[in-house]
Amino acid sequence: MKRLILALTALLVALPAMAGTPVNINTADANALAQSLDGVGLAKAQAIIAWREANGDFDSADQLTSVKGIGQSLVDRNRESILVDGAKPAKKSRPARPAKAANANADD
């Protein structure tokens, strides 16, 4: 009985670690996406790949919301595990800043 409890405890501790494995969404296959991203099963993983094949590589993690069935909360939950360039987790994209007026009073 103690062994069973110990084995179940070890399994419960290991499950979150498996879901958070970093994965490059521009190169991973459907199985890797489904195993690495929390809330992404095989169907959503295949939808990610179909979007990537139709539209090209993802520029940011937030672009995943363009895939049917993937919302911002799913992206936010997995942000630390989503890689777009293979080197570092994808950061939240920032809106572009408006350009500053180039010395509006230059003629004065």
UniProtKB/TrEMBL annotation:
Pfam family for this entry, one: HHH_3
Segments of this protein annotated with the region Disordered: 84-108
Listed Gene3D superfamilies: AF1531-like domain (1.10.150.280)
GO biological process: protein secretion by the type II secretion system
Signal peptide start and end residues: 1-19
Entry keyword Signal: yes
Stored InterPro entries: Competence_ComEA_HhH, Endo/Exo/Phosphatase_dom_1, RuvA_2-like
Biased composition (Low complexity): 98-108
NCBIfam families for this protein: competence protein ComEA helix-hairpin-helix repeat region
Full protein name: Uncharacterized protein
Organism phylogeny: Bacteria, Pseudomonadati, Pseudomonadota, Gammaproteobacteria, Lysobacterales
